[in-house]
Fold this sequence. Notes:
- By secondary structure, this protein is of the alpha/beta class.
- The chain has 16 helices and ten strands.
- It comes from Actinocorallia aurantiaca.
Amino acid sequence: MPSRMRLEIGEQPEALRRTIGSLTPRIGELEKLAARTRQVLFIARGSSDNAAVYGRYLVESHTGRLATLAAPSIATTYRRRIDLDGVLAVAISQSGRTEEIVETLDWAKACGARTVAVTNGQGSPLAESADVALLTEAGEELAVPATKTYTTQLAALSVLGAGLGADVDLADLDRVPDEIERLIEATEASESLALIVEELSKVQGVVVSARGLAFGTALEVALKLKEACYLHAMGLSYADLLHGPIAVVDETTPALVLGVEGSPVLEGTAALAARVVGAGARAYGIGGGSELAGASSLALPGPGLPEWTAPLALVVPGQLLVEKLARRLGINPDVPRGLNKVTQTGA
């Protein structure tokens, strides 16, 4: 029997079609809301925080606006007021019921920010609090590890980027669901998938690395490996990895390296994989075409999408890898130990 996580991975194309279809007509509304703002503040935790990393790179690389990640404790614990005039605060939460995120968005509004919520929780406190709520159409997600709620969040952030004036072609976004369908089939047909799963089943730790718009994907895959497979997975930009932590990569600690064809950081991504292999360790590539595959020990396919939308699909081979590895390890990926669907961090 397939796991609930695997079923929900397969539901992503249709969830994305619904989400993209419902949100792209709201670009004009976002343009109006953001007209008097000059920078973006993302508020999130967990997988939503990894989505926010994608949002930050998209906003800064394609709209020319400064974007930053919030520290919610400034609002909820230190209770410090900050001048947020001219800021668009974007809170991301799959449930819309994480109290810390709701409180931080309310704080941002009180500090002068315009506010946007990205959530799968229609009628949730977060959706009700925001000036504009971008409701994703993922449907109910039962597995604890986020899959379709994560990718639909990325779709919502892609629409947000367009509303902020990103120099992108929205037709690229419409291609994503079909590309994910193709990628699921191609990944599961790849002989490398079973080989990587078998090799990772014998290690306790792995480094997951990327850079630029793919960096949030590396963080998300690392989080899933920790959540569902109980591996010591470290998600790092390859620039940070080269500043010392690469010392942990050896014959017992492989690297999972993610890349996007056509990206300006692909050359460095492939060079990292080659360095890992040259040091006697294993490097597993995801995406990046023949350049990254040729530098890696084993590789999984990636999406044929431009860099700005590639992260919506690039995460999918990682999701499939995590689900199969968890089952290989005798772990139920649907209900990892110690986790709930909605996490409350407290004050």
